[in-house]
Structure formats: C-alpha cells, structure tokens
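pasting for ref
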Amino acid sequence: MEHTKEQLDKAERVILVAVQLPNRPDTGPLLRELGALAETAGAEVVGEMVQPKDRIDPGTYLGSGKLEELRELVLETGADCVITDDELSPAQQKNLERALEVKVLDRTGVILDIFAAHARTSEGKLQVELAQLRYNLSRLSGQGTALSRLGGGIGTRGPGEKKLEQDRRAVRTRIGQLKRELEDVVTHRELNRKERTKKGIPVAAVVGYTNAGKSTLCNALTDAGILAEDKLFATLDTTTRELLLPGKQQVLITDTVGFIRKLPTELIRAFRSTLEEAAFADYLIHVVDASDPEWETYMQTVYETLDLLEIREKPVLTVFNKMDKVEGETHFRDERARQTVKISAGTGQGLDELREAIALLLRGGKKKLEILLPFDKMSFLSEIRTKGELLVEDYRAEGVYVEAFVPEETYYRVLS
C-alpha cells in the first residue's frame, strides 16, 4: 500500500462507532481492539461512540438521533473518517457517508487495509487483493465513484472513476485471474507438503490470536528471522523452520497468520491455503497472550476459527506467553490442550520446558524401541533419528545399541 508524503505526515483522524446489542453487553474490548486496528493502519483515534440498540438499523447502522450526534462529533473533532465495528452493507456505508460527509469504513475494510500493507510475499499479495476485490465488488453497485472505492482504506484512494459495468467486468476478470494464480501457488504448496510427509519429519503449526507473540516464539526457537512487532497482524506470510529437540528429534515449526474476532469471511476464503497449514500439521502449538485480560475470549476465538476450518482433532500444546508481564495470581487453563506451558518468548523464560513439552507431545502415539542394531542394519539409524526421538545411541562391538521412541511403522520395520 503506497502513501503520499502528505498522508504519512498527517495521520488520518478517525472516530470509532459500535452498536451494543442485547447479546453483546460489553463493547469495550471490541472498541479497544478496533482502535488498535485503526492505529496499526496508520490512523489516529479522536473519538468513540456506542449506541445500545435492539438491532442494527438496516439503512444507516445507527438510529437517526445517534447519527446526528455522530455528525456533531465529526465536526467537533475534525475527523476524516468513521469506522464501524460491524461490517456494513453497501447501502449502509453509502448512507452514512452521505449523512456524515466523511469517509466511512467498517472493521472488515480496516483489516483488509492492514493486510494490504503487511503482505510481503507474492502469495500474500495475491490473497489480499483477491479478498479486497471480493469485498468491494458488491460496493460498486450504485456508486458514482466506482473503482475509487476499491482503494478506500486508511489514507488511500483508488485509481479514479470508470463506468459501472466496466468496473464490474474488470473486477470479475481480475478475480478469475487471481484465483488461477493462487491455484498454482496451492499446487506448489501441496507438493512441498508431500515432500515433508515423505521425509517423515513431524510438523507443528503455531496458531494464536494476533499479537500473541507467535513470531517472537518462532524466532526464539528456530532463529527464523520473522518480523516480530507489537502490532496486530505484523506478519501474514507463512514461515517454516526446523527445530532440533532434546533427543535430537527434528520437528518443523510453521508460523501462521494470526486470528481475530470477526475475522472477515473474505479473508478466511482468500487465506484458506495459508490457514490450512494448520490443517495439514501433525500438531498445533497454541500461543496465548497471558498478560491480556481478555486471554480466555481470544483463546475461544482461535478455537472457533479452527472449528470453522474443520481443524478439531489435532493434538494441542498451549503456550501461555508473556508471563513476565503477568501481575498477581491467575489460573491459566485450556481444556482442549494436552499440555500447557508458561513462558516468555521475549525473555527466554520457560523455553527449555517448552522444548521438552514439544518432545513429549511428539512422543504421544510412539512406541519405545530398545534394540542392538547390527552394522548391516545401520540404514535404520537415519530413519530413527529423523522420525523418532533418539534417547540412547551406543556403539558397541556387535553394532549400535539404540533406545528411542518411534512411530509404529518404523518400530515394526526395524524389528522385522
């Protein structure tokens, strides 16, 4: 995403707006998160407004009285933009812009804007563009500005006006082209997965709420060199690195894009191939920011997203991160995890215990092998090292004495 010097020098001033429905009694955490999203996108939050309401107004999102209050707040603060916590229909967005005379974005639009700014790889950029075009296609209907809306994120504008039908046709053509390009990427990713499966090295996908410290943890464990910042969605691109565990067992650690409440459907669709790294992994390492008061809610959001992706049966190791910032006594728990570990990826606290826990997780379902391998069966030693957890490797006159935890397939092949 390109910004002009003028846009970079002057942060866009935004007002956050939410409707508090009966089944959503506390909008505070949602607005705080929306504010963090806006700031990550480069905006300055200058005001907030919440309207308790039985239902969202289908035409203007807010009721008429509250809409007039919002208009006054826009004038008072000199805001350039209003951001709603709920996704708006094209009609709601148009009506709000007409009434307020400033740009209006919703939560989805801001998240898409952040993704556009943070995508680094060609795959990430393709996925973001596809999500943006799908999201904006319906918003072309009845808009005089047409494609100028397609770039309408924080501090941005699109390429200008075109005829409506030409816009629609151009967007649909581009969507088709992007889908074909992403299919090629998915095919390449599947080939990489098959290669990893052939080698027999277990894969652990690191999942968690955005900004829980996944990338910092991956860097601490594997020296992966992944960008790690105290921002929402600092990294979007999948990175896989090898980790050598106690007992010399190898495991591949894959960092994945962070989850968030109300993660836009279009992003889930566009990033499905990336998110499916978790589906094809053997294990999940679930990173939770233990210092955040909302940690239980965020943990639930991660599991809801995994359920949406039909990832329910994977063995889970939950890592309560940022323990150095936790004050007072808190009982951390996760009913879906096989094990939990308390760490601080930033300081290194608990990382040895985490490595032991990962080794123990990988040991589940493996059989204990104790054998004296004659020298003519030394080829098995490499397979034991790669696929299992080697505990003892003792060279003797008759061969090599081995103690290891190995998959059943390896166990019976070595003994046959």
